[in-house]
Structure formats: structure tokens, C-alpha cells
Amino acid sequence: MIAEDSTLLREGLVRLLAEEGHEVTAAVGDAAQLLVAVAADPPDVVVADVRMPPTHTDEGLRAALDIRARWPDTGVLVLSQYVEKRYATELLTSGDGGVGYLLKDRVVEVDEFLDALARVARGQAAFDPEVVRQILARSTRTDPLARLTARERDVLAEMAQGHTNAAIAARLHVSLSAVEKHINAIFDKLGLSGTTGYSRRVLAVLRHLGS
């Protein structure tokens, strides 16, 4: 399902996804219509704009979080014109996997958009590299990530985008065992060694935010 108040972008997404073999079960222009459509027939994935009518503030995000809570098997990929750190943080902490946050400019990079959509549908995370870059760009005086090496920060950035260990190894041209070693070092340095499951990957990204 697609929720986007821009008719041009909404119809463009419908056509793109149909051409790629996806079934678009609904395409609506506001958050209220989206929730009604999901309740009637929960889809595999929802693609929603963060800002939609009537106030164009965070209606889409609120709908996305509602969907995450009420229909946990439905993945949510939200689109935003700008990097909204608070919104990205809320999505990251809304549950395990099946969530993504992309800048709208990324949609024109069709392969990247489709890859993010597929990862969200598989229950993984997919976060825009620019979102991750801005979240991680903090002062070394207050940034708890300052203890990490340059390579560990590279690995963490790839983790934050939602890539698996095997994908990180391929993207950074290193071995899988090296990636696992770097991730364990990240968990140790951020005090997350005693935490289990997917939450460690989320917490590793959010630790520096302070809340």
C-alpha cells in the first residue's frame, strides 16, 4: 500500500511497483485513509510519506507507528523530504525489523529503493545512508561512538542501514569473520555485550543519542 499526498509521486510509485511485479492493493492521499485500508486488508509493506494532510507535520509517521503496533507483520517504509532525526529514532525503536526510512530523493535511485522495500518486506531494516550519516555526525566530546575505530564506524553505519553481516562484508570488501569481530567490538565498547537479539543492533545506533 502507498500513502502519499503528492498525486504525481503516488502514481509514479504505483506504476514503478506494478512494473516490478508488485501488487499495489491501495494508493491513498492521507494517513486516515491509509489506516482504514490497512485495517481492511493488511499488506506485506506500507510505503508512507512522513508529512501528510491535514497539517503536513507527522501524520504519516504516526500512522506508521500505529501500523507497527497493530499489525506487526506489516513492514513500514517511510519517505521524507528531509532528514528528521527524531522520526528516524522513533521508527528504529518501534520494534524488531520490518521498518525503513528513506529520503524521497532516494526513490529515483530505483534499485536502491526496491532493495530497501524488499528488505523491509523480509522483516529487516533499511535506513537511508544520509539519515545514518547525520545521526552519527556528533561531537567527539559527547559522542559515545568516539571510542570506535574508523572501520568500526563504517560497519556500524552499514548496520544502521539494515544490512546483514554478509551484506556488510560484501559492501566493505572484508571477510564475514572480520565483520563479526568488528560488531562484537562495537557492542563491547558501547556496553551492549549483555544484550541479546536484534535490539543490540538498534541500540548500537541509538546509544549516542542519549535517549
Automatic annotation (TrEMBL):
Residues 141-206 form the HTH luxR-type domain. Gene3D superfamilies: 3.40.50.2300. It comes from the Bacteria. Residues 1-119 form the Response regulatory domain. The modification 4-aspartylphosphate is found at residue 49. This is Response regulator transcription factor. The keyword Acetylation does not apply. Keywords: DNA-binding, Phosphoprotein, Transcription, Transcription regulation. SUPFAM superfamilies: C-terminal effector domain of the bipartite response regulators, CheY-like. PROSITE patterns: HTH_LUXR_2, RESPONSE_REGULATORY.
